[in-house]
Amino acid sequence: MPLSCGQLPRPPLPTWQHGGVTSATHSSLFPRVPESADAVLDGLDPEQREVALALHGPVCVLAGAGTGKTRAITHRIAYGVRAGILQPTTVLAVTFTNRAAGEMRGRLRQLGAAGVQARTFHSAALRQLQYFWPKAVGGDLPRLVERKVQLVAEAAARCRIRLDRNELRDVTSEIEWAKVTQTVPADYPAVVAKTQRDAPRDPAEISQIYAMYEQLKRDRSVIDFEDVLLLTVAILQDRHDIADHVRRQYQHFVVDEYQDVSPLQQRLLDLWLGDRDSLCVVGDAGQTIYSFTGATPDHLLNFRTRHPNATVVKLVRDYRSTPQVVHLANGVLGQARGRAAEHRLELVSQREQGPEPAYTEYADEPAEAEGTARRISDLIAAGVPAGEIAVLYRVNSQSEVYEQALSDAGVPYQLRGAERFFERAEVREAGVALRGAARAGGNDSLLDDAEGLPSQVRAVLSTKGWTTEPPAGSGAVRDRWESLAALVRLAEDFEQAKPGATLSDLVAELDERAAAQHAPTVQGVTLASLHSAKGLEWDAVFLVGLTEGMMPITYAKTDEQIEEERRLLYVGVTRARFHLSLSWSLSRSPGSRGGRRPSRFLNGLRPGSAAPGGGRGAAGTGGIGGGGIERPAVAKRRRRGPALCRVCGKTLTDAGEMKLMRCEDCPSDMDEGLYERLRDWRAEQAKEIGQPAYCVFTDKTLMAIAESVPASDGELARISGVGVRKLDRFGAAVLAICAGQEPDDELGGADEEV
């Protein structure tokens, strides 16, 4: 029977019913190294096993989301190495992100295939460029430019072309696209016209900026990230001796996410291969979402044409998601058009039944964020770890309102794309402390009463801020604790997998993980764009902001661009293992006219909607509590008039201006003394509850309070950033300060449980 959204997922089946196949997800962090080559094949399903055994000639693996593609290709490499068919130092596996490469290295190490190179295209090319540059060109390799945007800004200025911040970012991305598609500045306008590309500025102007950018790099002897690939290609093309050297080193290639290769990356791969065909590619045309960077699925779709004798294996058994999630994912791609859609994979879930996807309509964006935060709080209360929940949106600018809502709800979160785990200051400090304790051994007084590895780690990390209970709320203090808690959990898993392991053993494991960027899990709700969520998965996923103009994005005009937006939604849906929530809001701000419409991609899928070809969406695919679209009553009660500037009367749309209730340029009548008193009070509150100051009130909210000087709960509640929870918690103290009184400690609520 389907479960409600508040229920916990059942444990995954230990084996696959038709052959003892283990799930591709939720595997042990420290599995035993297989005893033999044949043992490497244990636990693979028939198709994954076919991939692992296909060690000769070209191989094309068409792998749907959640079908265990990384599992299949890492077991393929490991089986070849353990069977003596492949020498580990002659294998090069390439993928597209450092995280994916790190995960691949970690898995290969666990399978007994250490020594295999797993890198991104850029990382592999950079190593080769650094090694061969002195021989091919002479001298040291030019340094990599640190901030490309600054150089593009200077190039634009020299061309006397003014770019605002958004245009500067877009033009920089356009130059990157031109380079990976091997388009030189002079040819750029013609290529844009031929491909009907939607350029962010006049193509002639971009051509000018692009040419000046290249000139500035030459003048300063610097190269950019794209030059790494271009220069490696140039050296391999011009120097046959160097190309032969590389081909002697690497004789077998594996390319993950092959649908995302650019023409330049394909050219580099061809040069690495030479006239050989020991190549295994893995991809899914239905997950092509990076065409704006030059990626194209054509190389995947044309693979069998280029390699008529290729072995082709399809992976469609989905071990990640419930039948309900898989059904929706298939429905999203079922309406797709174009060449990629002709090669779509129909997924078949291998998991038990779960809850139906939930569809929720809200009156405005703040209501959507607050509703999402409430549901996340409910899931956490029901036992779903915060680290197994994600909120995914189309563009990064959507994150702010969700950060605020989660903070207000006391839910810890982390932004995807933040610094790498092992580069965090607290993790580096913890590593130093653990290494010191390991060297001291029994002479470290910290370890006197600690028995067993986890207890020793807890004792050492308690000096760095780890406590048995997490600090309240979110922010820097909670982030630091979460990092240290991840190390404690890692020690617990390590000791369970390797009884008797010492602190020195754990330090060695951490060093290997740091080298491979194989980070442990940090507990906190993930906020991420749909693009950055590619390759990740969670127990519960909230897809938010699904309105026309955002999904598909407003600048997606052509049929091809629209189809890529559909694939982006498909990627988002397939990130969910068990719980899936889809939501949209009818307006941007409270009180605005609700003229928005749900995404066209949900037509025929959400309850009561008409399918593109006619008919209605199935009522059985509804939301929580009996199906259908939820329209929270609270969202309707919160309707207010449009936010107007209290100085000039203009309608406000910017979130910061709405907090201040005035245009940024309009004169401020803020009471500076009141603002300083509020800041002092906020600092005390933040210190007492162990949260950063902005979790009490942001600077903009304090400015708005100091400008309007509210005298009642109603006046304070009208200020954006003062929700019901904060009004109850801090309202009396804030009103007392505004009235010139000293806030009563009992009114401040600092001792309340967050």
Structural features, described:
This protein is of the alpha/beta class. The protein is built from 30 helices and 17 strands. A seven-stranded parallel beta sheet has the order 13-14-12-15-16-11-17. Strand 15, helix 23 and strand 16 form a beta-alpha-beta unit. Helix 26 packs across helix 27. The radius of gyration is 28 Å and the shape is globular. The chain starts with 36 loop residues before the first helix and ends in a 6-residue tail after the last helix. The N terminus and C terminus are likely disordered.
Task: List how many beta strands DSSP finds.
Answer: 17
Structural class: alpha/beta
Oligomer: single chain
Helix fraction by DSSP (H/I, runs of at least 4):
40-55%
The average pLDDT value, as a whole number, equals 81
- Strand fraction equals 5-15%
Give start-end ranges of low-pLDDT stretches. Answer: 1-27, 618-627, 634-641, 746-754
What is the end-to-end distance? Answer: 36 Å
Cα-based radius of gyration, to the nearest Å:
28 Å
Q: What is the number of helices?
A: 30
Main beta-sheet annotation: 7 strands, parallel
Q: Tell me the strand order in the biggest sheet.
A: 13-14-12-15-16-11-17
Shape: globular
